[in-house]
């Protein structure tokens, strides 16, 4: 018996990297306990990629291949594309009609993101981007998700969703939605090649769907102890990106590596070579799984087609309840917009 319902998703904006792996492994565990809906959030991607929408289509297949590669099971979860369930747009519209503008403007991530893109020479001050939290609320509520895996930066959006639920119930005197609660998994922070958070926007990422040659080149670029000039100099592992990766992926030997580094018994080059071998060994089963999946060029689209069908069944049921609560059902008409 599953514990409840979870909705989570990712935007198809580029190749997934090692920083996403712990999230996907968490999803893999959750799908054993919850009714899980995993969504390719392509409409969310368009809020910032509206000037090049085709990129979201190109990346959708790659995104889902990565999901399946690490073990998401379409038989144990519902994997679908947001835009293929039109009820997302309908519920988003209806919720936007009751959402005060001030609620959207106070979301802390809005101004931060606007400033971030402005520094890149882009203007995203659009109606769609401002309404991002409302669309996110619609995504969650359409499947009556009662648990949502989020990072701490997304907590304001989830509280926004609960406020919308309370306002809907207050206005229409009928409880349709649960108030979704946050699930804050303890996920390790994977640094980028330069020690900052791993991110495509920083160009410091290691793609999940890479190869031994790419891993070798990426590890070679990693920042090490800047004060260590010679291989025999005592190192400072705590400021070394290579050591941070060893802590995540070389746990059985990480203490020995730390001691050897501090004593000057292992240089940065051999330490990087050890990490390269470890990462390749760790990722090889995923790469082999991906190659198997790629043998059938239609498999991903078949998974998304079936997932979309299941998602629409639930979405249509929810929208019938929403229209009934609002009293906007048109006699003699069926279906959604």
What does this structure look like?
The protein is mainly alpha-helical and 337 residues long. The chain has 2 domains: 5-189 and 297-326, 3-Layer(aba) Sandwich (Rossmann fold); 210-293, Tyrosyl-Transfer RNA Synthetase (Orthogonal Bundle). Helix content is 54%, strand content 7%. It is built from 14 helices and 5 strands. The strands form 2 sheets. Strands 1-2-3 form a 3-stranded parallel β-sheet. Helix 11 (241-249) packs across helix 13. It is elongated and about 80 Å long. The model has no long low-confidence stretch (mean pLDDT 93). Keywords: Aminoacyl-tRNA synthetase, ATP-binding, Ligase, Nucleotide-binding, Protein biosynthesis. InterPro entries: aa-tRNA-synth_I_CS, aa-tRNA-synth_Ic, Rossmann-like_a/b/a_fold, Trp-tRNA-ligase, Trp-tRNA_synthetase.
Summarize the structure.
One of its GO terms (cellular component) is cytosol. The protein has helices at residues 18-30, 42-49, 54-69, 87-98, 101-105, 108-119, 127-130, 132-142, 155-172, 212-220, 241-249, 254-262, 268-294, 299-326, and strands spanning 5-10, 35-40, 78-81, 147-149, 181-183.
Residue share in β-strands: 5-15%
Q: How many individual helices?
A: 14
Mean pLDDT score: 93
From the helix content, strand content and strand pairing, which structural class follows? mainly alpha
Provide the spatial order of strands within the biggest beta sheet.
1-2-3
Level of helix content?
40-55%
Supply the CATH class of the largest domain. Alpha Beta
Query: Which CATH architecture of the largest domain would you pick?
Result: 3-Layer(aba) Sandwich
CATH fold assignment of the largest domain: Rossmann fold
Shape: elongated
Uncertain spans = none
Report on the biggest sheet: 3 strands, parallel
Number of strands: 5
CATH superfamily (homologous) name of the largest domain: HUPs
H/E order of the elements? EHEHHEHHHHHEHEHHHHH
User: Number of domains in the coordinates?
Assistant: 2
What distance lies between the first and last C-alpha atoms, to the nearest angstrom? Answer: 34 Å
CA gyration radius, whole angstroms: 23 Å
Catalytic activity: tRNA(Trp) + L-tryptophan + ATP = L-tryptophyl-tRNA(Trp) + AMP + diphosphate + H(+)
Family: Belongs to the class-I aminoacyl-tRNA synthetase family.
EC number: 6.1.1.2
GO molecular function, one term: tryptophan-tRNA ligase activity
């Amino acid at each position: 018996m599953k514990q409840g319902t979870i909705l989570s998703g990712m935007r198809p904006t580029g190749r997934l990297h090692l920083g996403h792996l712990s999230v996907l492994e968490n999803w893999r565990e959750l799908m054993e306990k919850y009714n899980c809906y995993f969504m390719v959030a392509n409409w969310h991607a368009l809020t910032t990629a509206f000037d090049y929408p085709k990129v979201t289509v190109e990346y959708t297949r790659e995104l889902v291949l990565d999901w399946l590669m690490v073990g998401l099971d379409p038989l144990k979860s519902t994997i679908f594309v947001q835009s293929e369930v039109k009820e997302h747009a309908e519920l988003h519209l209806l919720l936007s009609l009751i959402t005060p503008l001030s609620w959207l403007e106070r979301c802390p991530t809005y101004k931060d993101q606007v400033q971030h893109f402005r520094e890149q020479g882009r203007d995203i001050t659009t109606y769609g981007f401002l309404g991002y939290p409302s669309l996110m609320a619609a995504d969650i509520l359409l499947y009556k998700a009662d648990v949502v895996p989020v990072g701490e930066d997304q907590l304001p959006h989830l509280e926004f969703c609960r406020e919308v639920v309370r306002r809907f119930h207050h206005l229409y005197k009928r409880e349709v939605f649960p108030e979704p609660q946050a699930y804050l998994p303890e996920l390790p922070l994977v640094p980028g090649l330069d020690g900052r958070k791993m991110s495509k926007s920083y160009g410091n990422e290691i793609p999940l769907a890479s190869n031994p040659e790419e891993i070798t080149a990426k590890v070679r670029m990693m920042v090490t102890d800047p004060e260590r000039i010679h291989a025999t100099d005592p190192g400072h592992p705590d400021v070394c990106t290579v050591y941070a990766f060893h802590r995540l992926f070389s746990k059985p030997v990480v203490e020995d590596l730390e001691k050897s580094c501090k004593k000057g018994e292992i240089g940065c080059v051999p330490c990087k070579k050890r990490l390269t071998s470890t990462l390749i060994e760790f990722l090889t089963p995923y790469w082999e799984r991906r190659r198997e999946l790629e043998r059938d060029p239609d498999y991903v689209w078949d998974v998304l087609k079936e997932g979309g069908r299941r998602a629409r069944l639930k979405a249509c049921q929810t929208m019938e309840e929403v229209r009934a609560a609002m009293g906007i059902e048109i006699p003699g008409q069926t279906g959604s917009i």
